[in-house]
Amino acid sequence: MTAPTKPPHTVPAPGSPGDSPGGEHLHAPVITWFDEHARDLPWRRPEAGPWGVMVSEFMLQQTPVNRVLPVYEQWMARWPRPADLAEDAPGEAVRAWGRLGYPRRALRLHGAAVAITERHGGDVPSDHAQLLALPGIGEYTAAAVASFAYGRRHAVLDTNVRRVFARAVTGVQYPPNATTAAERKLARALLPEEERTAARWAAASMELGALVCTAKNETCHRCPIATQCAWRLAGKPEHEGPPRRGQTYAGTDRQVRGKLLAVLREAHAPVPQAALDRVWHEPVQRARALDGLVADGLVEPLPGGRYRLPLT
């Protein structure tokens, strides 16, 4: 395998202006800000390698950095290479996932590790199409791994980047609920032509959204492109779409699923139905949640009304 380039925060700053049409006035100030303010995260360090980048991208989906950090460190210590994870049972990945939420991500990451081991000799591929062909990897994750692990030129559109572009360029407070074709077109138009600069821009614009151009209580006085921000220059008009409500958790099937999985993660032998019945008072919702876990491959039913995390 070709040796990976350094992570985005170690890539040299862009040299020439005019890297892309319409974006050059944003690249230099945002990347310069990133040089000074980027967080020292373990998956950004050279020793993390492409596998560390991939693991972080799976874990960071819909989950804040502070919750990911301890699980990531334990995961990488236990499974430093894809082949190490592939050798273990998928249920062990679910167990190690802990309380990160959305545990199907653990199964998908395990499936990706198996595919990497079988198809690519244990090395995370650098090619976008090959990444996209791995189980559980969509457009965003493929672009992020290719960009952050290998310094490739791809538009990396997560929630933070979409919010920065919506405000700075489009002049609205929030992006649409789902990524649109117009957003993808804008991201490609803003992408620097030079590959390493494009990778750095992807990381820098994401960090700007995470630390400064936040969903609430944005700190425009710290923003390197505040004087160019279309939303700020327009007087910060209020969001005109439907109210943006946070996801509820208490009392939902997600909460019940989490409680059931917590019992199974703590157990190293099959768990009887009676032990699972104790975690939630409402039998219909409890049964629905358990059936959903089985259907998703997160729980394996056994004869005699017992359950365990999946072995295959």
Break the fold down into its secondary structure elements and pairings:
Elements: H1 24-37, H2 49-60, H3 65-78, H4 82-87, H5 90-97, H6 104-119, H7 128-132, H8 139-150, H9 159-170, H10 181-190, H11 195-211, H12 230-233, H13 253-266, E1 271-272, H14 273-277, H15 283-295, E2 300-302, E3 306-308
Helix pairs in contact: 1-11, 2-3, 2-8, 5-6, 8-11, 9-11, 13-15
What features would you describe in this structure?
With 312 residues, the protein is an all-alpha fold. 52% of the residues lie in helices and 3% in strands. It has 15 helices and 3 strands. The protein has helices at 24-37, 49-60, 65-78, 82-87, 90-97, 104-119, 128-132, 139-150, 159-170, 181-190, 195-211, 230-233, 253-266, 273-277, 283-295; strands spanning 271-272, 300-302, 306-308. A 3-stranded antiparallel β-sheet has the order 1-3-2.
